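for the record, two folds in this file. i put them one after another cuz i was lazy. first one right below, seq on top, structure tokens after. the second one comes after a little note so u can tell where it starts
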Amino acid sequence: MMIGLLTLSLAQLKLGYAMDTPSPTWRTRTAMPTARGQAAVATGDDGLIYVIGGYNATTVLSTVEAYDPLTDTWTTKANISEAVRGAAVAKGLNGIIYVISGWNASGGQTNTVQAYNTTSNT
């Protein structure tokens, strides 16, 4: 009985799961405002996908952009404190996104831990 209720509840929510997508093929969505590679990426508690730092072939970036998959739009967020590329990223139980280590703008490895609050954009 519990499984049936859970299944019914999830089906009614229609949260945009892949099985709800009408086409089985890849589709192009709105491009990021800033082209980059080696970025840290995490999903926030708000459902947005955060792309943090990275590298654009000439510069290590400090920019942060958030993608809303429900509206297919991008929003520029507050810059990360230290520009990094190739960093590790994780979301803590408190909803804070942590960007850990990576390579900094001077070309050296860094041991910094930077924390981003998606609610306050800080």
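(here's the note) second protein begins now
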Amino acid sequence: MLDGEGVICGRDGKSDFDRMRACFSRNGAPEAFLYPFDLLELDGRDLRNEPWARRRALLEQVLADADPGIRICEHIEDVDGAVVFRQACVMGLEGIVAKRRDSRYHSGRSRDWIKIKNWRIWPSSGRC
């Protein structure tokens, strides 16, 4: 069982929310794909209490040979988060998510996983 997000990208490689909404009004959207970002269960084993780093490693193993309809989201570590965030803003991305490596899975908001939004896209979220 995966946790992820359905995505359609524009020609610039960025998520295109308008195209994603439009795909629900027609039959099929071959350009849509899944960005999985967590593995919750594998072969009947509940992984939600495992640390994020372990779940991420398993997710990468499971999806190593996935077809193009599933694309594992990029993970960056051991870098200055402020630099990564500023670059995401420059690129016009919606933001970044920071996760504690030792965190367990929880649905909903958590202090262990923080979404930092690009204020140009989400005006009420602050500044880059």
